Amino acid sequence: MSTQTRETTSMADAQAKASTLIEALPWIQRFAGTTMVIKYGGNAMVNDELRRAFAEDIVFLHHVGIHPVVVHGGGPQINSMLGRLGIESEFKGGLRVTTPEAMDVVRMVLTGQVGRELVGLINSHGPYAVGMSGEDGGLLRAVRTGTIVDGKPVDLGLVGEVVGVDPAGIVDILDAGRIPVISTVAPEITEDSVTATSGAPAGHGFQTTGQVLNVNADTAAAAVASALGASKLVILTDVEGLYANWPDKSSLISSLTASELREMLPRLESGMIPKMAACLKAIDEGVERAHIVDGRLPHSMLLETFTTAGIGTQVVPDEEVDA
Asked: Are 36 and 69 in contact (CB under 8 A)?
């Protein structure tokens, strides 16, 4: 390639980058100063290239004035460790039954492995990230939940549903200019506490049982986003987004309202229900936008957030369309 051709190509690349930055400007202006909650999971969590790209995205958000909060699970890593330790996993209705022995592994992997690795990846760019779990400072509180199989209730063991969030610890970290990275285990509270704290200030008036529960990272992220009054909830997954008629990929939905999603929810594939239910919960509780984004594509979160085309599915409040 001649010098002139190389210079022409280089200039074209530079102009394309400049155009991308200009396109991002109104979105940066709109969301600067707001909090964005990102649920990290799927292939983005286990593929090295995607893990590095995700960390870069989080640092980028931080440097353009957005306050990212990362909430993560760790299903593949938990499966791997249980296998290495010879602990069998039993599933009922497609959900893992979490025994006390398995819960020890869940807690160790989420807080001690997955969370630490993500903190390290982000901090390779500077001293930004601080790891925490749902146990820290009473951040999350949960009650046990089961499932229904063949019309009968089934006990899932130490599996919980988040029923309360005290965001004070997250706010402290954000106020210090850092990035919270939250693993989704939560202290179990007594049934009496659920009623007693329904109208109480966050973090007050509840009693724990002394047990820790494994909670769904999608629903935990939605609860955190709601408690923080976030501008966005972004859930990374392993599909392009929500399809109107799965598996017809031409039926990908780029945007829908909360009412439209509520109507679709019972008909969705089982794997998408927790993610879309989390989006709906967030919107119903005041989060401005909720997004399902393909985590298999490097920098997909930035493409969805800062470009006009977008690449996933966004859920918006009904009144926005009516306005």
From this structure: yes
Range 256-269 average pLDDT: 93
Give the global pTM.
0.90
Cis peptide before 247 (omega within 30 of 0): yes
Give every strand in the sheet of 289-294, ordered side by side: 129-133, 179-183, 67-72, 35-40, 232-237, 289-294, 313-316, 255-257
From CA 123, how far away is CA 59, in angstroms rounded? 9
CA 51 to chain centre: 14
> CA 202, CA 197: separation in Å to the nearest integer?
8
Give the pLDDT confidence of 190-206 residue by residue, as tens digits.
877 776 544 444 455 67
* Residue 187 C-alpha from the chain's centroid: 19
Helix-strand-coil percent breakdown of the chain, rounded to 5? 45, 25, 30
Q: Is the dihedral of CA 273, 214, 227, 306 positive or negative?
A: negative
Query: From CA 202, how far away is CA 216, in angstroms rounded?
Result: 20
Q: What is the pLDDT of residues 90-105, one digit of tens each?
A: 888 777 889 999 999 9
pLDDT at site 315: 96
What is the rounded distance in angstroms from the CA atom of residue 209 to the CA atom of residue 201? 20
